Amino acid sequence: MDQVRSQETPKPIRDRAILVGAGERYGLASAEIGRDPLEELRLLADTAGAEVVGVVTQTRSLVDPALYIGKGKAQELQEAVQELGATLVIFDHDLTPAQASNLEELLNVKVIDRSGLILDIFAIRA
Fold first, then answer.
1. Nearest CA to 46 among 22, 25, 19?
2. For the chain, which ranges sit under pLDDT 50?
């Protein structure tokens, strides 16, 4: 007698993402600005199929030319990536190619910015 085996479709592996926001508005409490400043980025990440596992924010008025965020915050981000098993870091800002490359080298995971995330969503939907 032939056995019938269940042919379950394997679930796609979702990226485990950490969202990063830096700037003056990220130091304000959600109640002060009326909403979570990373709410839209969370929704975009979910649409792209990523699971948000953490958030790192920094109140900052000047952008670091090498990493966008400060060196201390980059170290904190590196620790969060390791602790949370993140496979992706998504910045809520446009990164220069050098910043993205420097961050990927430091973090050993893929780093994208908001624009790259939106392009990924378009590619998925095409």
1. 19
2. 1, 29-31, 33
User: What tens digit of pLDDT does each residue of 23-56 get?
Assistant: 766 555 444 545 677 889 999 999 999 999 999 9
How is residue 24 written in tokens?
A: 């003056």
The secondary structure of residue 48, as a DSSP letter, is: T
The 3-state DSSP class for residue 118 equals helix
Burial of 29 (0-12, 13-18, 19+ CB in 10 A): exposed
Directed axis angle between helix 114-125 and helix 39-47, to 10°?
30
Q: How far apart, in whole angstroms, are the C-alpha atoms of residue 53 and residue 65?
A: 27
Tokens 């600005």 sit at which residue?
33
Which two three-digit tokens encode residue 84? 């949370």
